[in-house]
Design goal:
With 293 residues, this protein is an alpha+beta fold. It is built from 12 helices and 7 strands. The protein binds protoporphyrin IX containing FE.
Length: 293
């Protein structure tokens, strides 16, 4: 199950294992403060921080954070919180929808310290049960930066994020899908036929057709293009030879029609690859449509 990208508010609570959550850390957790120095102490501080969020009450997390308004906290959503009070408010709203939250800190915690600054990175898993009973889970990453204030190490910045889903394998998709499906194809055909009918040279071919007859041609062209590009439609019209026989469509008429199609495809920002594929499908019909020089 996927977790909505709710502002994780570093709600990164923890189903932290007991080995990580040492007795000593537990003792320090009661004050919410720490004078962490070693890697294991920073890790224990992370655990306590996460546990505080697991209570679903931001006031329990407050002791871990610096309170200056210019400290930015990046959560999964929204884009950012400026200052602890904004962070706590946003988190409170989000947490109000949860009935439980559990965090599991990854075994990849890395901590670093330089003087009065320290930072850590870790992956985590969050398991949420919402008040509606829905279960959601999310794998994310957490970067946290502390500054030593007196004997406490306070979070002055943190960044919680989740990886983007992999891009769809568009190369393997049908041209129909890559063009955007039925609605996109219908929009392209409407624009193209509109241009043909309004063209000073080609308009004569469409003159005299009733609105209904033009709609029928439009629908047949949509079906034809939909089928030819790998879509779910079935073309039930006549062959190109039958339907254009005797019209006297010339090479020049054809060239004008192709220019209109290019203009239509450009108008809809069809990418070069798809544009080429549509145009070569069209070229294959030329011999059956053009009947005069
Ligand atoms: C210079 C270019 C073209 C002109 C002037 C033209 C003109 C026409 C006209 C006037 C009709 C109506 C025929 C009738 O009343 O029975 C028609 C039908 C049709 N055209 Fe074209 N056409 C052109 C190119 C194309 C192209 C490129 C396609 C395909 C993408 C196409 C697909 C169709 C279809 C599907 C029909 C309806 C067939 C049927 O009635 O069963 N035409 N065309």
């Amino acid at each position: 199950m996927k977790l909505r990208p709710w502002g994780l508010c570093l709600i990164v609570g923890t189903a932290l294992t007991s080995s990580v959550f040492s007795a000593e850390a537990e003792k320090k957790a009661t004050s919410g403060k720490s004078s962490a120095r070693s890697a294991s102490e920073f890790k224990a501080l992370m655990v306590r921080n996460l546990q505080s969020w697991q209570t679903l009450d931001p006031s329990n997390a407050a002791p871990y954070y610096a309170k200056e308004a210019n400290h930015v906290f990046f959560d999964i959503a929204p884009l950012k919180y400026a200052g602890w009070s904004e962070y706590a408010d946003g988190a409170k709203k989000l947490l109000a929808g949860f009935s439980s939250l559990k965090f599991t800190l990854g075994d990849d915690v890395q901590t670093h310290r330089q003087g009065n600054l320290a930072w850590a990175t870790a992956s985590f898993r969050a398991d949420v049960v919402t008040k509606t009973g829905a279960k959601e889970a999310l794998d994310g990453r957490w970067t946290v930066l502390w500054e030593k204030r007196g004997k406490d190490w306070l979070v002055v910045h943190e960044h919680v994020s989740v990886p983007l889903p992999p891009p769809p394998d568009t190369a393997a998709q049908s041209l129909y899908k890559r063009l955007g499906g039925y609605d996109s194809i219908a929009a392209v055909v409407d624009d193209f036929i509109g241009r043909l009918a309004k063209d000073p040279t080609l308009g004569k071919f469409f003159a005299g057709h009733s609105t209904d007859s033009l709609k029928r041609i439009r629908q047949l062209v949509v079906d034809q293009l939909c089928e030819a590009t790998g879509g779910p439609c079935v073309y039930i019209g006549r062959t190109m030879k039958e339907s254009h026989a005797g019209m006297g469509i010339t090479e020049n008429d054809w060239k004008i029609a192709v220019d209109h199609l290019v203009a239509t495809l450009d108008k809809f920002n069809v990418p070069a690859r798809e544009k080429d594929e549509v145009l070569s499908a069209l070229t294959a019909l030329k011999k059956d449509i053009v009947s005069s020089n």
